[in-house]
Amino acid sequence: MQKYDCSLEKHQSKKLNSNDTEHTMINTSEMSQTEHKINDDVMLYIGDSLTIPRTNKFRMIYFDPPFNSDRDYKLNCNSEVGFSDKWSDADYEEFIRRHIDLLYELLEDNGTLFFHISSTCMYIPEKILRNKFKLVEPIFWKKCRSKNNVKTKLGSVVDIIWKCNKNNNYKFNVVTQEKDATYLKNSFKNKDNKGNYALGHLVTENTKKGYEYEIKIGNQSFNPKSGWRIKETELQKLIEEDRVHIPTKSGAKLYKKIYLHENPGKPCTDLWDDIHSISQGNEERKYPTAKPIKLLERLIEITTDEGDYVYDPMCGSGTTAKASNNLNRKCIVNDINPDVVEIVKSRFQGETKE
């Protein structure tokens, strides 16, 4: 993650001094810009992401900027790796606006930009994003289970990842989340020669009106007052394929058989509570604000195909690069801090792609 002290005239980064909270000021306009080929599919640029030239457009961009959290971040108490995240609101808004203007131009028309921010600092970015993009939708990432050390306020356990698109024709792949263990145990109790199955509703709920028709199965007749959720031809097809659970009790409803082996997961919702932060997992933290690789892999899987280009303008430890590489995407990442070069390279040491 980069850190800029933004003003209208000059952009500078603040790097933490290992001994105290003083800052060494680096004028980004005087910084040398370097590139580092990590492998055939991953390129790392070091320098100000506003000034480094880009020839590619990207199917997906992951933007994880400073949060305007009024804090200093360090990898650990003995590390120089880190940044200061202290701003005025006016400077922060100008900083975000300049980057979003550029990232919008770098995004393919059917691409997606993900903007990662804490729930407590979401207002300024949301205002800018909604003024720029046609579609802006939140993903709520529940990054941790609890905050036992918080005594004077509500514990902050959610980050917001804004999903931003230029139009309705964006690339989207269905990705599944694991089913809840309690749900699996209690729902897939029925069994036939195909396997265990749960019951899916075929009858419309009582507050609505569905398709009206009568279905006969053997000597039983089914014609619910509220109607059916699907057309008669669709229900007949399910019956022919033995995918309808027929009750033995008189007056009971028909249900669709939902087989466990055909539904290993549930389609992703906008609440992600199945991926935990690095602090609550077993992944090594390589940067103060590093995100778990599973989070980036899911974002990439939803919005890209193999061979597509992914971009991260403030890459920190290179989680986006590693996730892209794992999924056979091409990736360009950038950071203003030269310290990250060896950190990013360390993610790929000893690896060979098939």
Please give a structural write-up.
By secondary structure, the chain is α+β, with helices and mostly antiparallel strands. It has 2 domains: 5-177 and 266-346, Rossmann fold (3-Layer(aba) Sandwich); 180-263, no CATH class. The protein is built from 7 helices and 22 strands. The chain has helices at 89-106, 123-132, 181-187, 232-240, 293-303, 319-326, 340-346, and strands spanning 5-6, 11-16, 23-27, 34-39, 42-46, 58-63, 71-74, 82-85, 107-118, 135-142, 158-165, 176-178, 190-192, 195-201, 215-217, 220-222, 244-245, 255-259, 265-267, 271-272, 309-312, 330-335. The strands form 6 sheets. A 9-stranded mixed beta sheet has the order 4-5-22-21-6-9-11-10-20. Strands 13-14-18-17 form a 4-stranded antiparallel beta sheet. Strands 1-2-3 form a 3-stranded antiparallel beta sheet. A hairpin with a 7-residue loop joins strand 7 and strand 8. Helix 1 (89-106) runs parallel beside helix 2 (123-132) and helix 5 crosses helix 6. It is elongated, with a radius of gyration of 25 Å. The two termini are 30 Å apart.
